Amino acid sequence: MTAYLRPASVEQALAALAEGPAVIAAGCTDLFPATDRRGLEGRVLDITGIGDLASVGSVAGGVRIGAAATWSDVIRADLPAAFDMLKEAAREVGSVQIQNAGTLVGNICNASPAADGVPCLLALDAEVEIASAHGLRRAALSEFITGVRQTVLAPGEMVTGLIIPERSLGGRSRFLKLGARRYLVISIAMVAVRVEMIGGRVVQAAIAVGSCSAVATRLFGLEKALIGRSLAELSAPLDASLIAPALSPIDDIRADAAYRLEAAAELVHRALCDVAEGFA
Amino acid sequence: MNREVPQWVLSVNGAEHILPSTPGRRLSEVLREDLGLRGTKVGCDAGDCGACTVLLDGAPVCACLTPAAQVAGRAVTTVEAAGDALLERLRAAFLRHGAAQCGICTPGMLMAARALLDTSKAPSRAEAEEALGGVLCRCTGYAKIIDAVCDAGVGAPAAMPPAGRSVGARVERLDGAAKVTGTERFGADTAPEGAFLVRAIRAPSAPARFTFGDLDTWCATLSGGVHVFTAADIPGENCFGTIPPFADQPALAESHARLRGEAVALIAGAPDVIEALDLATFPITWEAIERDLVHDHRPDNLLITGTVRRGDADAALARSAVVAEGEMRTPYIEHAYIEPEAGIAWMDGDTLVIEACTQAPVMDRDDTAKVLGLPPERVRIIPATAGGGFGSKLDLSLQPLIGLVALKTGRPARMIYSRVESMASTTKRHPSVMQARIGADGDGRITGMTFEGEFNTGAYASWGPTVSGRVPVHASGPYYTPHYDAQAHARHTHSAISGAFRGFGVPQAAIMQETLYDELAGKLGLDRLAFRQINALQSGQETVCGQVVQGVGISACLGALDACWHAALTRAEAANAKGGTLRHGVGIASCWYGCGNTALPNPSTIRVGITPEGRLCLHQGATDIGQGSNTVITQICADALGLAVQDFTLIGPDTGITPDCGKTSASRQTFVTGKAAELAGRSLRARILSLSNMGPDAALRLEGAQLIVSDGSSERRIDLTMLEPDFHGYALVAEETYDPPTTPLDADGQGSPYAVYGYGAQIAEVTVDMILGTVRVTKITAAHDLGRVINPLLAEGQVEGGIAQGLGLALMEEFIPGRTENLHDYLIPTTGDMPEIETILLEVPDPEGPMGAKGLGEHVLIPTAPAILNAIRHASGGLVRQLPALPHRVLAAIREAQ
User: Fold this and answer.
1) CATH topology assigned to domain A52-167
2) CATH number of A171-279
3) Is A14 helix (H, G, I), strand (E, B) or coil?
4) Cross-chain residue pair B830–A181, CB shorter than 8 Å
5) pLDDT tens across B91-142, in order?
6) Which of B64, B131, B134 minimises the CB distance to A184?
7) pTM of the predicted model, to two decimals?
8) Are A181 and B832 an interchain contact pair (Cβ–Cβ within 8 Å)?
């Protein structure tokens, strides 16, 4: 079946999905590189014509990032400091051209181990809003991506947006990406760090590492250890045993696994130092 | 009943176009193929290169990633846009600053820059670098592009120099206008009505045997008429190669593939039919085979060994005060020009015409004719503008393939390589494993050197013999080395073909030698620059080939860097004194490079004539692949003749109308073709002076069909219409050939392989993150001896671009067949990776070169990588012995040193 569908509403999109499988297209920055054809083929469901899917902003219960919102939309959006890391990541995605087209939801659905948005969204406790003809459901991002290029998305379902819950909108944040060149680079390792302090003590820490395991992962052990620390203690050297066991990096053309472990730990340390500086 | 075809409206540059609905089609295809707006370029079809950048409602996007459906109702702006004042200013600034070399990235750069100017009227360098970070350029090193963007609001074009004063002037590219307006015609930009599209079936791995299924039946199942061609259809000798005695490469493999990506069959037909084909259905069976020998007639897979021996190196090393030794490994390096190979072939009567990207039109003609069984005069090569070459477009790629289809079907045949196809099937820089020992006496004088290099030449010979020949001649560096024993072996593997890449193996050898020089200086307690200066080759000294050289400029280059060197060392020391995880270091390395073929003839012939109408035509046969021959050769000829550059009409390297100027390689065009242009210009001038009976200092000027010769006191007019035109239609004409004087090398590599050498040295300043192993090059200071600087603007562009490629070689580039065959896994520097570059151009005249000039194109890349490696070691203590110096390798080297 070949058709290019560009519905004007989520309802129309879901109806089309209910009729049969389709490739869901938005920024197309992953779809086109995957084909040597002159155009997208097969049954394509382009969701960029659905106006309200492109919005980024506050909703009841948190902040919503629509499924068609681009990296540039996020960069331009007025968001709390907890999102600084996401904006930093957005500015490091590919190039301005890619940021103008690519979407955050596409980034999580593509489910690359090196997806730039995932560590930040994990550290924001993002929930994925999934719609189908049968209704809406939500999944935590950490459960949504199940492996390399694998998600829980079932036939007939599409992601309509990401919700960052109220409880994760606090604190300061930092994203660091390590690559072998400045722009247009796939990372060797990257980290996203969000820390909330009250009364000079850490009350909440969310730390995620990407490109060092099949799916980007939170460092819960380290986060727990940071609770209660003072500003000065935030910049202290880290216990590697709270980082390495959570990661399972591989050797590839960009770096070897041992290096990735070390680099991830160092990047976490530096990101925490930067966040501490921001609080100071 | 007529069925209504769904249509859509596309607004481009303010004009509305109604097109048949193709919602999923890439916007790049719609613009180029459906609307014929081919100013927008396609380099990768994956968003990795940004060449296809267009503006969508003012915002830059990659047209290759944009489905047509998303463009309906929005405004598209492309490089062809007229009447946009800011774009006009950018175009002028690009020309003024020499920001366009080959021009293939220029449309994307202009569009990205145009968007920036909407938000920032006078952008900073940092803003410009970020805005242009998504567009790759392989020629310029970005410096002049950033200059142009930051300067778009101000500046006026430089005045053209008057007659007799063009050499030495910063003349804007004479062929630049088309590059900034999107009208330049690259290989993929010509598509006549009715042309067949050609695609190749390629080997998925190698070595592998293949058998075809029933091709006729397969064709019959397809509607629309599809033609298949295999090796069995090749009418001539299915064997080509750039160096005829070593020719070994089939245009289409006959029974087994020797490399992944080798073409085994062609499919041709109407474009819509061919585009729609699923090549996976092509009836072919592959079977992996065990094979050690790549070519049965080459035992041990050895293609050739190059040797240079002088004195007794082992004995000299044995009695040296200090000896340094080591090993270096470098990977395959991809040329990564932004234009994948493309071209079109058609029949003009019984002549096969091929318009395709190339650096060597006459070689293309002869080898294509051989493969297709035609006499050379029945093949005409019209070089399309080459969107970068750097050595790889010296070899045939698609010429015999499209030629075969045009010859067999009588239809124009068009082929455009995909990025993957280009990277998998065309030549690379040779991977190398090198060992060397170098000794010095107690005074710091080099006593002797041994060098042994294994160069993986891949599946076919290509330029392997040249690499193995050049490496031992140059591995000493530009230093007096009395005892020397160097060998380089070019050895086959069932892998990507290694051929020519800017420097022919010399950049690899320089990495080996220059890093050992730092070690020697350390052992001797000498300043690293001073140690090099002690040993710098001098005019009148003998090279390792026993050639007495003149006009040697290495001492001048090192001398010019002396103050910069000490300033850089002081800067690094001061920065390091502050402590922290970043360590700062400084490195230096030199280069020398012989211009032209190694000990072989390589003549250029220049014809310059004036028509009866007064049109001054220069048949400029040096293919300009961005380096600037069209401008530089004209400047030389202009001054030799005594007319102004703007008087000239350039006639390009079309084998049908222009004499052979050889190939654009070996840094030979400014020297060899430049010399022919100088001779031709002088010869025409002599003819004019004799016709007018005027003295040697007379001034010339063209006024319509009148050529006016004056000497201040009197004036003579030559009425060109009164002169009998020659066979080519010129009233006055001169044609001169120059072939550099060289002598063959003997069994020990002794002789005079080159008539002219060029020299240079570069300082690299770096910061190394001691915990992450990341390296940032902060500044390169480059001193190059050009003998005579014909065009400083273009020379700086060569230096900056060569440095970018050297930086990539040092820090990030590694081609792995089947793995890094795209521009997101194969990394080349972006705007954000380039350091500040300070260029110092020196003039130590060469007695042989035109007006004293030497070559430059390849020299500039040679010192960069070793200077960076030396700087990393200076900063961190770690010497990376396997390139690229990726962060994990740098960190490992630091630990090893600790």
Assistant:
1) 3.30.465
2) 3.30.390.50
3) helix
4) yes
5) 999 999 999 999 999 999 999 999 999 999 999 999 999 999 999 999 999 9
6) B134
7) 0.98
8) yes
